[in-house]
Write the structure tokens for this entry.
Amino acid sequence: MSGFVVGHATHPDWRGALALAAAQIDGARARSAATPTLGFVYLTDAYAGAAEAILAELQQRWPGVAWVGSVGVGVAASGVEYFDEPALVLMLADLPAGSFEVYSGARKLQRIEPYSALVHADPATPDLGELITELAERMSSGYLFGGLASPRRRALHIADGVWEGGLSGVAFDADVALVSRVTQGCQPIGPARAIEACERNIAITLDGEPALACLLRDLGVADLGNPRELLPRLRGTLVGLTDASEDAGARAGQFGSATRVRHLIGIDPARSAVAVAEPLAPGLRMAYCQRDVAAARRDLVRICSEIREELAGEPGAAPRPLRGAIYVSCAGRGGPHFGGPSAELQIVQHALGDVPLVGYFAGGEIARHHLYGYTGVLTVFTA
């Protein structure tokens, strides 16, 4: 046994779901001598109103276990997804008690030297990007992973309490070994170009050309003369933004892990400019893109393969085991996007094997100091 155990269930009453998930965990723990110290809990928003009661029940069932988690429109476990139905997923881990520390707005990090951290956040938090960057700077590795709550009701997150607003999660010291990758869900339809002139969130020129002219060329549209044809194509177009210093991760015809996908929110024909859902700055590289299921599947398989290769180590060396995993995917992905119920998590399970895994479908994904969209962030705990 890895010391990581998972339980998951759907039920109209949260008490029924928790009892079913707990029975799975207790059955798995009966075959292991591991003592759990840290728990992860993700709830669909149908249970958001009962979050405090759920946390109290978890603390009573497993005293001494610290709990972190969030709420989403969907939750995930090994090979299965629950969307738009009342469900919860749990994972217990036997990490050394001194190797991690739970934090929130009311509980600052002060006991360990933080190396990396899982972070959950309320998407309505002011200056969220700056808070994520500040937290990443506190990590000696600079690495965060996690996501934003994606509720229809309460944007809550859990860190030994139920919180709304701000950030919370759990930090790990350097003895907790992690391997993490970002998988992209969009594919560029044209080249990445440097932003030369911009105002706030409006891109005016890219590589010396009008930004709108570049967009029309990438879409294969001659001009703005046929709005009925153009508008549906514009609605399906997004932009990928990459800092010039982080552009090296891109592959031909694909985005690298540093690219943040944002919505295209408008065009300005008078200035031949486009508006993007993020403040812009000269020097950023910008590529128009669209969601692509086939590319998303390939990229998800790729990151799973990279994780397995990294854990395999040098030829002749004993591979490091996969102990447990957390997968945070965009609320716009999941089985409905990948072609069938639980399709995305089945791809992960097929590529990684039956590693204990939990996660949720977020309103934005976090990796390093970046806030992403339409991506998945897969993080594996290893020895």
Q: What stands out?
A: The chain has eight helices and 26 strands.
